[in-house]
Design brief:
heterodimer, A: alpha/beta, four-stranded antiparallel sheet, 13 strands, B: mainly alpha
Chain lengths: ~300, ~250
């Protein structure tokens, strides 16, 4: 069954002066998915999401969100989408409950915000002023504000940037819950692990273009990246013993450390079996699977910069 | 409309929680009133045209509140709301941009009005403040003066790049103007040359208009002041509509 189209972008272009932020971008987001945009800072992620939200006017191209034009129907659209923005804040002395109470009144339709406080773990921060919240609490409050109008689609722009690893993982759980409530999620991130673990589909952006778009698994598969088995041996070791094992493409040794490469996940079991049968004494055995980061490096030829 | 009034009410609460803004708008003018009232009393004197020191100071202090509200509270408030990303967050809601700024104007106007009301009550109770004017005229002049200074505040908030520069520029403009225009100290005590120079300051026209109407002079005498303040209001709205930035 064809899923309902939530976001449709065709040939989007946006430049700031002579700097082209986004060039000829086209993609679609479907109902119920967690769609991620990933790329280094300056790749055009925020420009794209803000054009879709109607906060920026594209130079050219065609955008439809829930069938609406984000520029022409901006207020009708804002009532039906939830937004968490980068570089935004609330009044320092505004209390958590007042923020929710205020935002609930700004939308033509809103849900009871009290259960939201519970669900987002802010119940004990009910009367805390915004300025006194931690970074994670502020982000959770912004997520609550993005949900207070019961939107069909939620936009999260670098939701976890600046959060510690625990708060980040808690946020992933939260995003999955939002999706489980039937909402579509569109997020940007520059954390590869986040995109890989959270997103159903990922668009990799670089220099204002989408260089790849697929599920994380397919992106990794199409890269043809290798699985690696790494271990250390005590005493002499003949790497040739492993070259003939099924699935092994090559073996590298560096002093006492050995790296075995293979094309598929099965290579791990085969290598371990061969080592056990030959009675090789090994330690520090671990395996490495190709990640989205490998895909990104292969496609853009550079490290992710923060 | 529900969102607009909720935002207005929220901003009223926030204003009263902000000690600096509440102090300059509500408490400082009262302190001035009691300080100079206790020094000079409110005996009628030919020096003030048959009025007492408090009688001429209350409309002048009202002008001072208008200046601090428009040039300090509003300018610094809007510049820091923009710098922190608060305007950006509010702008991304279905609330219309005019409603977001309109709520700020209403709140700052109500606080300015409250500042004047406190002055009048204190002046009446403690010093037997004399008022010979038409309350409606004075209120109309108060609204005109407030709006033209708020428009100036929006212009400054629009063209100054950061909250820090907005604060410095607003203070540099506001404080000398308050003293030179006769809003903080009666212009009768200022040297003639300063009084003449002060005619270029917008606040001087507010002081002249409010003091005159307060004493029961006909509005026809203050057409020049009225035209200048109305021009500032219209020009300020037009300029800030072009220069105001949300982020």
């Amino acid at each position: 069954m064809q899923k309902r189209l939530i976001v449709q972008v065709e040939h989007l272009r946006k430049a700031y002066g002579s700097t082209v932020a986004v060039d000829d971008l086209s993609f679609e987001v479907y109902e119920g998915e967690i769609f991620g945009m990933i790329g280094p800072n300056g790749a055009g992620k925020t420009t794209t999401i803000e054009c879709i939200e109607g906060l920026r006017r594209p130079d050219s191209g065609h955008i439809r969100v829930l069938g609406l034009d984000p520029q022409h129907d901006r207020y009708a659209l804002r009532a039906r989408i939830g937004m968490q923005l980068q570089e935004s804040a609330l009044q320092d002395r505004l209390k958590v409950w007042e923020a929710l109470d205020l935002f609930a009144a700004l939308y033509p339709r809103s849900i009871d915000w009290r259960p939201l406080l519970e669900q987002l773990g802010l119940a004990d921060r009910h009367s805390t002023p915004f300025a006194k919240l931690s970074g994670g609490q502020k982000q959770r409050l912004f997520v609550a504000l993005a949900l207070v109008n019961d939107p069909d689609v939620v936009f999260l722009d670098e939701l976890t940037t600046g959060l510690d690893p625990q708060a980040r993982r808690a946020m992933w759980e939260l995003v999955r819950e939002i999706r489980n409530r039937g909402k579509t999620v569109f997020l940007t991130t520059h954390y590869m692990e986040e995109a890989q673990r959270l997103c159903d589909r990922v668009a990799i952006m670089d220099h204002g273009h989408i260089v790849a778009l697929d599920t994380p698994e397919n992106l990794i598969k199409t890269l043809g990246a290798e699985y690696r088995v790494l271990f250390a041996v005590d005493g002499p070791f003949d790497p040739q013993k492993l070259s003939s094992v099924a699935g092994v493409t090559r073996v590298e040794t560096l002093d006492e450390r050995v790296i075995v490469y293979g094309a598929t996940a099965e290579v791990v079991g085969e290598v371990v079996k061969a080592l056990t049968q030959s009675g090789t004494r090994m330690r520090d055995l671990r395996t490495e699977q190709p990640t989205l980061e490998d895909v990104f490096l292969a496609l853009t030829g550079r490290e992710m910069r923060d | 409309m529900r969102g607009f009034w909720k935002l207005t009410w929220t901003e009223v609460k926030l204003f009263l929680r902000e000690p600096m803004a509440a102090f300059f708008t509500l408490a400082f003018p009262l302190m001035m009133l009691f300080l100079f009232g206790s020094i000079y009393g409110n005996k009628p004197t030919p020096f003030f045209g048959g009025y007492g020191s408090v009688d001429v100071s209350v409309p002048a202090y009202t002008a001072m509140i208008i200046a601090t509200s428009g040039l300090l509270s509003l300018t610094i408030g809007m510049a820091s709301y923009r710098e922190q990303g608060i305007l950006r967050r509010l702008y991304a809601t279905p609330l219309r941009p005019q409603a977001i700024l309109g709520a700020q104007v209403i709140v700052i106007f109500l606080m300015t009005l409250l500042g004047m009301v406190l002055l009048v009550i204190a002046g009446k109770l403690v010093y037997g403040l004399r008022f010979d004017g038409n309350p409606l005229y004075v209120l109309a002049a108060f609204v005109l003066s407030s709006m033209s200074f708020f428009a100036l505040g929006f212009v400054l908030a629009g063209i100054l790049p950061t909250a820090r520069t907005a604060q410095i520029v607003a203070m540099v403009l506001c404080y000398p103007m308050i003293f030179l225009s006769g809003a903080a100290i009666p212009r009768e005590v200022l040297p003639e040359r300063i009084r003449q120079f002060a005619q270029v300051l917008p606040l001087s026209h507010v002081v002249t208009l409010l003091r005159g109407l307060w004493m029961g002079e006909p509005w026809g005498k203050y057409l020049w002041e009225t035209v200048i303040l109305a021009t500032i209001l219209i020009a300020g709205v037009l300029v800030s509509a072009k220069t105001f930035r949300w982020e």
